[in-house]
Amino acid sequence: MANTDSSNDRLHELDAPPWLRVESTIVSAAADIRRLYDERFAPLDLTLSVASLLAYVAEFGPVSQTRAADHLHQGRAVTGTQIDRLEQRGLVERLPDPNDRRVWLVQVTADGKELSGQIVEIDVVVRKELRSGIPREDRQALANVLVRLQHNITNALGTEHNTST
User: Fold this and answer.
1) Model pTM?
2) C-beta of residue 64 within 8 angstroms of C-beta of residue 105
């Protein structure tokens, strides 16, 4: 059967220009998802990163700054700045760690707990919008691929680190 596809039809991913390859699509989708969350959290005067930190502390706190940073895959300095901001707003407080005098634990306040409930409500709505028209089995397949991709990234970063030393 002859190929009657027009030149505007999809190319095989390997033949596509860089901006149409799967990695570029993932990067673009991630940026769009972050922008959507940032817009939805803006009325709460929060970004996705800060909202995630507050929700994490509300669910798992009190936690150390290091543990929160590791869980959220961001630097301790960035996390510290975010904690400062949340503390200034009265949403979290720092407590001395009873097991280590050098460490401060971050705990959500009553106001922070209330705001974290609003964060969860917004998240539920956004996730519903993002998942619209995508069956559960497709989402699971995507999740499986992304987990493998993260593993490959970790390996590549480890290899790059090992070869540069």
Assistant:
1) 0.80
2) yes
